[in-house]
Amino acid sequence: MDDDTQDLCALWREGSLATGWAMPDDWWTPAVEQAIKAVNRGHGLTRACMALGDARARAGVGIAEGMTDLAALFRLFGSANPPLAALRSFATGWAEAGFAPIGELRCEDPLTGLVSVAYLRTRLAEIYREGTARRHCLVVVTVTVADTWERVAALLHVAALLREVFPLGDTLVRLGHGRAAALTTRPRTRRLRDAGVVEVVALPDRYRDALATLSLWT
Question: Please, which domain of life does this record's source organism belong to (predicted)?
Fold first, then answer.
């Protein structure tokens, strides 16, 4: 990525976060760079916006949040709103990916077999729609070893422990930075304490606040 594109990428991300993007570490994707170059050069916009919509859907980002993010890009170039063609292309890319067979979407981490953050965001949305958020919490385990290979081994151990401790359908997820978690109604921690630093976090009242909390570990 050249310096100009990198600077625009940083400004776009900053603008998107300011207007509601909830997961800072999930923002960048190769389609971001493609979209910046298309808007900057004035051609290839349809393909770039479609690719961005596809990438956002596959990451579990809702179409409204994705379009707000797209608008932040166009504001960098002096447009109050994205042109209709850009919005249409983004929506097409998002819809085609969003309604793809579930097996084609990113829902499981290939290393640990735990679900992805994108899946957890979807599960949280379901819980808040059901009105059961107050019954749930996140049990977060952070691996503290510094060596890369030892950290991988420790994370695999944590994944196996989570399956043993929460065997009855709780959502088990790999977060970022050597972390894994269980979304559960039963905050069991005793067997996990020797595997890393364990935190039990109650879900906040609002879904948006839950996503902001989740971003602390991704």
Answer: Bacteria
Give pLDDT, residue 149: 66
In this prediction, residue 110 carries a pLDDT of: 67
Residue 54 has pLDDT above 70, yes or no: yes
The two tokens of residue 203 are 């879900």
CA torsion angle for 143, 146, 152, 157 (degrees, to 10)? -40
The mean pLDDT of the chain is: 87
Write down the residue that tokens 């961005």 correspond to. 52
Degrees, nearest 5: CA angle 22-27-112:
95
| Cα–Cα distance, 25 to 175 (Å, whole number) | 11
Q: CB neighbours of 15 closer than 8 A, spacing ≥ 6?
A: 72, 73, 75, 76
Tokens 């919509």 belong to which residue?
Answer: 53
CA-closest candidate to residue 138, choices 195, 26, 213, 29:
213
Sheet containing 137-142: order of strands:
171-174, 179-184, 137-142, 197-202
pTM for the model stands at 0.54
More confidently predicted of 107 and 86: 86
Could you give the CA distance from residue 34 to residue 58 in angstroms, rounded to a whole number?
Answer: 17
Backbone angles phi, psi at 216, to 5 degrees: -65, -20
Helix axes 117-130, 207-214, angle to 10 degrees: 160
